[in-house]
Each structure stands twice: as C-alpha cells, then as structure tokens.
Design goal:
There is one protein chain. This protein is an alpha/beta fold. 13% of the residues lie in helices and 25% in strands. It contains 1 helix and 6 strands; from the N terminus they run E-E-E-E-H-E-E. A 3-stranded parallel beta sheet has the order 1-3-5, with no helix packed on it.
C-alpha cells in the first residue's frame, strides 16, 4: 500500500474516483513538492481531505472540488 509514503516529489492528483471512500493510506505523507488536486471523488469526504492537507507541507496549490461535502 501507500502507508509508508512520506513524500511526493511532484503533484498529487486524485480525480474521478467514485469508489474512493477514504485516503487512510496517505496519512503518512508529510511533504508534497507540487500541487494537490482532489477533484470529483463523489464518495470521499471533504473533511477527510482537509485533515490530510492540514498535516502536509504543500509547496504548490491545493484544489478540492466535487468531493462529498455532506460528511
């Protein structure tokens, strides 16, 4: 899995994954040297994305559009 991933040298893009319900495997991330895009993941809670981003240093822009805002 991705649970040992601590850094990304480039961008992180998760887009159009209707079956994606959590991002637990990414919580070891501490650094992303690029942009972060969470777009159109209809079953992924926006609050979960916010928790992840709060704990990561991102050198680019962060976009969160079209994820589940109801949880």
């Amino acid at each position: 899995g991705l649970s040992s991933l601590t850094s990304i040298h480039g961008y992180l893009k998760l887009q159009g994954n209707d079956g994606l319900t959590n991002i637990d495997g990414l919580y070891s991330l501490t650094n992303i040297d690029g942009d972060v895009l969470f777009y159109d993941n209809s079953h992924l809670c926006r609050s979960e994305v916010n928790v992840l981003i709060a704990g990561v240093r991102v050198s680019g822009t962060v976009s969160r559009v079209g994820n589940d805002n109801s949880c």
